[in-house]
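Subject: mismatched residue count in predicted assembly?

I count 518 residues in my input, but I want to confirm that the predicted structure covers every chain. Input:
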Amino acid sequence: MHIPDGFLDAKTAGVTAGLSAVGVALALRRVKHDLPPRKIPLLGLAAAFLFAAQMVNFPVAGGTSGHLVGGVLAAALLGPSAAVVVVTTVLIVQCFLFSDGGVLALGANIFNMAILNSFGGYAVYRLVCRCLPGERGRLTAMAFAGWCAAVLASIACAGELAWSGTVGWSVGFPAMATVHMLIGIGEGIISALVLLAVRQTRPDLISENASAATTARKGEWFGYGLLLVLGIAIFIAPFACPWPDGLDAVAAKFGFEHKALAGLPAAPAAGYQIPGIHWAVGATAMAGAIGTLVVFGLALLLGKILVRKKSLDA
Amino acid sequence: MNFNLLTHQHRHTGSVIHHLPAGLKLGVALILIVGNVCFPLAWQAWFLGVAILLILVAALSRISPWFLLKRILALSPLVLGVAAVNAFQTTGQGHWLGVAERSLLCLLTVTLVSNTTPFSGILRVLQSVRVPNLLITTIALMHRYLFVLAEEAGRMHRARASRTFSHTRRFQWHTLSSVVSQLFIRASERAERVYDAMCARGWK
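Triage response: the counts match. Full output below for your records.
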C-alpha cells in the first residue's frame, strides 16, 4: 500500500501532508506527556519489531501472500498515540533508507497507514471490546479491527489516487478493496493470534502499556476523530456518494450546466460510460457491506475457538 | 522482498558523491522530486535533464549499475502495475507513460541519495530542520535495532523450520503468530535493557 512518488499530484500530496502533520504532532505531544521516560526506547524497538514483522509473509487464498501492516496490533499493544508514532517512524525509515514509498507521498502514506489504520482500527477495537467484554471479546475485536483497518486504509489509498487523477475510482476502488478484503483476513487472524500469545506469555507487558496513562483520552479521541472524518470527507466521500457533488449541484441550480455542456464536443468516454466498470463499484461496495458482517461473524468464531482451546489447556 | 533489501544494503565507498554534505544532497533531491511531481509532462527538457543528472551522479558515486537496477526492479512492480491499470483508463491514453516516468525518476533519486549518505547524516539534517526530538530518537533507535531484530527473526524462523517436520496450514498460522509474538516480547525486553544502558551512560 506504499504510494510511490509521481502518483499523487501536488494538491493531494499537500492536503495529506497537512493532515498527517497535525496527526503526528498530536501523537507526539500525547506520547511525550503520557509515556514514562523508561518506555521511550520501546518506541524505537517497537518500530524495528514492526518492520521485522512486516517481512513475515502469510498465505492468502490463490497462491498470493500478504504481509502484516500491524498498525492496529501496535495500537492494542502500546496504545493508540504510541502506535501512530511507531508506524510513522517505520514509514519514514522505509522511505529514506529503502526508497519504499515516495518522499512527497510520505504524507499520504502516513495518513493511510499510521493514522487511518492505527487509530481507525483502534476505534473499532475499543468499540467491539466495550460491546463484548472478556478475553473472547478482546480477540474478536482484534481480528475484526485488523480487517476493518486494512480495508479502510486501502479505500483511502484508492480515493487519493483517484483524486490525483492517476487511477480512476471506478478501477482503483474495486481493485484495492477486493485485494485488501482478502489480505485483511490474514491481518486479522495474525493480529488476534499474536495478541493472544503475548497475553499468555507476558500479560504484564500489555497491562503496563495499555494502562490508564496510555489509553485514549477524550482530547485524543476528538483530535484523531476529526482527522479521520476530514480524511474520509475529502478522499472517499466525493467518489462514493451517489449524489452529485456540491459544485455540480450549484451548477444545476443556476442552469449553467447545459451552457457548459453545449460548448464542449461530446467526450469520447465521459464519466461512467463502461457499464461493467460502473457496476463493479456498486458490487464492491455491496460485497464490502456483506463482507463486514461475514468477517465479524468469523471473528466471533475465532475468538470462541481460541478461548475455548485456552480454557481446555488450563 | 524486504529481507533481500536488508542483505543488499550498499557499502560505503569513498567517492566524490559520498563526501558531499548530507544537507546538500537531500536538498537537491527534494527539489528534483518536487519538480518531477509538479511540472507538467510537456516540459520534456526538465525530465531529460534530471535523468542525465541522475545518471551522472550514479556514475560518479561508483555504485554498481546492477545494484541500482536490482533495487529499482524490486520496488517497481507497483509502479508498473498502476501504470498498466492506468493504460486501460478512459481518460487520456499515454498518460500512464508519464506516471511511470515521474515515479521512476523519483525512485532513482531517493535510491541514489540513500545509498550515498550515511543514515546518521540524514538524521542530522532532520534535526536541523526542527523535526521533534522524540521522533528523531525513535527513528535513530529503530535504525540501530532494525538489523538486529531482522536477524533475530531470521534465526527464529530457521530454528523453527529445522525443528518442524511437516507443516499443515493451521500449524503454519500458529508458527507465524508465535514468531511474531516472541519477536515483540524480545523487542520489549531489549528496550528495557537499552534504557538501562542509556541511563548508565548519562542519558538526560
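Chain B touches chain A through 78 residues (CB under 8 Å). Marking this ticket as 'not a bug'.
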